[in-house]
Amino acid sequence: MLTGTAANAASSDAPTILVVGDSLSAEYGIARGAGWVNLMQQTITQSGFDYNVVNASISGDTTSGGRSRLAPLLARYRPAITLIELGGNDALRGIPLELTRSNLREMIAAARKAGSQVIVVGMRIPPNYGPDYSEQFFTMFSTLAKQEKTGYVPFLLAGVAEHQDWFQPDQIHPLAKAHPQILQNVWPTVKPLLKPAGKSPAKAAESRSSKPGA
């Protein structure tokens, strides 16, 4: 999925928020527009901010996939904020934690080099993968966020994971009714990074250049 969320779209010169995630962000199994990323665009606009949210999430994606496709996304959208919601599929596929950690670190560095603020979105995996591995996987996100000084969402599915009836039959992907709660988990980390409409760096520079003698 790669959309600029048509509903409640921001102005054409508004800064971009880029979401690079997997099926949990790509509206897998639910109606288009019902996922938390689109709900975030609506909330941003309704809150008086002027940002375009681009959902570059792909179902089944891993951190390796995200790392390989991030550079062209950064070049195309020049995002003010980049949310990285990846890692769950790495764990499901048994990818070594060190590789997942390295991929995430490289994505953070690339986004920051492109001038983007970064938010790392944490994930948990079922305990049947082993308590030690599960805990190491979970703490990996917070450790990275602390070391790299990024924004941090502790657990994307907080308040959702305990409700079995909020999931599709596969018990992995949330139903549409769970996505408002997912947005509630993300929004407190995103909102403080937003600038009021008309205060983006690009608009400020444009304003300065239009003044007499500028």
Automatic annotation (TrEMBL):
SUPFAM superfamilies: SGNH hydrolase. Residues 19-179 form the SGNH hydrolase-type esterase domain. Residues 205-214 have a biased composition (Basic and acidic residues). It comes from the Bacteria. Transmembrane segments: none annotated. Residues 195-214 are annotated as: Disordered. This is Arylesterase. It comes from Pandoraea vervacti.
